[in-house]
Amino acid sequence: MCNHEINESQYFAPELETMTDEELKKLQLERLKKTVNHCMNAEFYREKFKELGITPDDIQTLDDVKKLPFTTKDDLREHYPFGLSCVPMRECVRLHSSSGTTGNPTVVLHSQRDLDEWAKAVARCLWMVGSRPDDVFQNSAGYGMFTAGLGFQYGAEKVGMLTVPAAAGNTVRQIKFIKDFGTSVLHAIPSYASRIYEVMCEEGVDPRRDTNLRILCIGAEPHSEEQRKRIEENLGVKAYNSYGISEMMGPGVAFECQEQNGLHIWEDYFIVEIIDPVTLEPVPDGELGELVLTTINREAMPLLRYRTRDLTRILPGKCPCGRNHKRLARLQGRSDDMIILKGVNIFPIQIEKILLKFKELSTDYLITLETKDSNDTMTIDVELSSLFTDDYKQLQQLERTITRQLKDEILVTPKVRLVPKGTLNASDEKKAVRVKDLRKLF
Predict the structure, then answer these.
(1) How many C-alpha atoms does 110 have within 13 Å on its Cβ side?
(2) pLDDT in tens, 375-427
(3) End-to-end alpha-carbon separation of the chain, Å?
(4) What angle do CA 409, 411, 412 make, to 5 degrees?
(5) How far is the C-alpha of 211 from the C-alpha of 177, rounded, in Å?
(6) CB-CB contact of 186 with 195 (8 Å)
(7) What is the pLDDT of residues 12-51, one digit of tens each?
(8) Is 395 exposed, middle or buried (0-12, 13-18, 19+ CB in 10 A)?
(9) I need a surface site. Which of 7, 33, 81, 104 has the fewest CB within 10 A?
(10) Listing from the earlier edge strand, what are the strands of the sheet with 270-275?
(11) Under 8 Å CB-to-CB from 64, ≥6 apart: which residues?
């Protein structure tokens, strides 16, 4: 398909990863038209199209995607469980769902073809960061309804690696597996990767000397470049950022390559838009906004213009790796996770960026928002690392320094409390809780 020379060993699917812009747009339009017609099998989309006064025939160019209705998480909940299915249930072979702690969970259906394509997408990502069939892949993510477990599992098997489905938790056993099985590629959420290193230190395990680890795939929770660098330094690996969302399929939506200069999002699977989350209008390339995705390679439950609520931007230019798909900047958080304090918009990742500059601090922190005497306040509890010595004066000075730097970054003055290691009880199995907004109780 491509006329230019490529080193096929670099790519899992060279004919797709190195498409020219023209080839990619042609494929996208073909798949978009097919998807829009297929969506008419769902009553939800038939009604939406009727409300907007459009038909599938109105979609003739890629720019016409803006005519399509948005789909939201609330839409999935309101039509729970199978209201957005586009195929008979007998053609569906698996479902995944969100935790659904309040109200109905979101349910996503998959046909066998959907699962096969999902595995190929994840395999493409793992290959891109240097994973090969002679590697040993250990998956320290939850299995079951959580898509990261099975998504990475089948992708790693598609690459041909020996896979270790360790699942989440039991960190001592995780480390034993890493050592005994010669694990070279590890998948873990950032907070748990930091926890693995802490337990290695407690157990006297040197990751460089005692393990074969070289690649770490991290994702599922927002993290700063400072946290990534600290993980790389501690574990002696290259840590690659992963982006997945269960409504799209799960992991495999976008991934960094070895250049580590943005996440390649597979445009043969998705049409990418960045919008202003308030006006819902598109923003220029390079400007921060909410990621909106349209699936164009799904059978059971394709979604049109799904509002992910994730905040990112499209990076300009081409990547030296040769892949021609758009690149997304590191996720900056979610539009619905934004903290508004004293009229200032703040994202937790801004706070993390400052905290992780200090070697005296661990990676565990908690932001608490409260209303006291009709005044909104922010308290940031941060665990000390094992590098900190028990010195009260030094502790006070450190708190003042951190507070000053945070004020410069977020434009409000938080109360910083440095607490002993283990105080915040970070979970081995779940995404770290970073914000508690107690103002909602008033």
Answers:
(1) 22
(2) 789 999 999 987 776 778 889 999 999 999 999 988 889 999 999 988 886 55
(3) 61
(4) 120
(5) 10
(6) no
(7) 999 999 999 999 999 999 999 999 999 999 999 999 999 9
(8) middle
(9) 7
(10) 270-275, 289-295, 306-312
(11) 58
